[in-house]
């Protein structure tokens, strides 16, 4: 899965926790970008207001069924 691959990259590159959301949004495309732009507006344009864990929870809730 895409997000698992991103986390593997972060682990090997020792990406700091507070930079993971910013790095991930750079790689979003199409529906992912649309979703993030909406989420970012709700955060007042400040991506630092969301933690990596919150980002992942919201990402999975939006793009994956609860049955998966």
Structural description of this entry:
- The chain has 68 residues and is mainly α.
- It has one domain (2-63).
- Helices cover 65% and strands 0% of the residues.
- It is built from four helices and no strands.
- The chain has helices at 2-13, 20-27, 31-42, 52-63.
- The longest helix is centred in the first third of the chain and has 12 residues, at 2-13.
- The mean pLDDT is 90.
- It comes from Cucumis melo var. makuwa.
- Keywords: Hydrolase, Protease.
- This is Gag protease polyprotein.
- GO terms for molecular function: peptidase activity.
Question: What keywords describe this structure?
Answer:
68 residues; mainly alpha
Give, in order, the helices and strands: HHHH
In total, the number of strands is 0
Number of continuous helical runs: 4
Please estimate the helix content.
55-70%
Into which percentage range does the β-strand content fall?
under 5%
Report, as a whole number of angstroms, the end-to-end distance.
12 Å
- pLDDT < 50 runs, ≥5 residues: none
Provide the gyration radius in Å: 12 Å
Topology of this structure?
Blueprint: H1 2-13, H2 20-27, H3 31-42, H4 52-63
Protein name: Gag protease polyprotein
GO molecular function: peptidase activity
Keywords: Hydrolase, Protease
């Amino acid at each position: 899965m895409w997000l698992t691959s991103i986390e593997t990259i972060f682990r090997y590159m020792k990406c700091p926790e507070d930079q993971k959301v910013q790095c991930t949004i750079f790689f979003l495309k199409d529906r992912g970008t649309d979703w993030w732009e909406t989420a970012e507006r709700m955060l007042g344009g400040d991506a630092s207001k969301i933690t990596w864990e919150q980002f992942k929870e919201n990402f999975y809730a939006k793009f994956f069924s609860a049955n998966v």
